Amino acid sequence: MSDNVYKLIELAGSSTKSIDDAIHSAIKKASKSLHNLQWFEVTETRGWIKDGDVAHFQVKLKVGFKLDD
Questions:
Q1: What span, in angstroms and rounded, lies between the C-alpha atoms of 28 and 55?
Q2: Burial bucket for residue 59 (CB in 10 Å: 0-12, 13-18, 19+)
Q3: Torsion-angle region of residue 36: left (phi > 0), alpha (psi -120 to 50) or beta?
Q4: 6, 50 Cβ separation under 8 angstroms
Q5: 27-42, pLDDT tens digit by residue?
Q6: Where are the domains of the chain?
Q7: Is 36 helix (H, G, I), strand (E, B) or coil?
Q8: pTM (2 decimals)?
Q9: Among positive and negative, which fits the CA dihedral 51, 54, 56, 61?
Q10: What are 37-65's pLDDT values in tens digits?
């Protein structure tokens, strides 16, 4: 088993549809410029209310990826 080094970054994803969609959007966008993405952890969840209904979702994620050798 080889030793690996990982880097952690924070992302914020948002969506008008759902928390799940906010997570997927953030990961999909990050994967366009980063590679070796391995895992994520949702660290914060929040939303906005408009006219008595949920209007927007936002999540903050920690994302880990393996650094190249």
A1: 22
A2: buried
A3: left
A4: no
A5: 999 999 999 999 999 9
A6: 6-66
A7: coil
A8: 0.86
A9: positive
A10: 999 999 999 999 999 999 999 999 999 99
Structural domain 6-66, CATH architecture:
2-Layer Sandwich (3.30)
The neighbour count for residue 24, using CB atoms within 10 Å, is 14
DSSP label at residue 35: -
Task: Give the Cα separation of 27 and 13 in Å (integer).
Answer: 8
Check: CB of residue 60 under 8 Å from CB of residue 32: no
Report the sign of the C-alpha dihedral through residues 29, 11, 63, 16, in that order.
negative
Is residue 35 a contact partner of residue 65, using CB atoms and an 8 Å limit?
yes
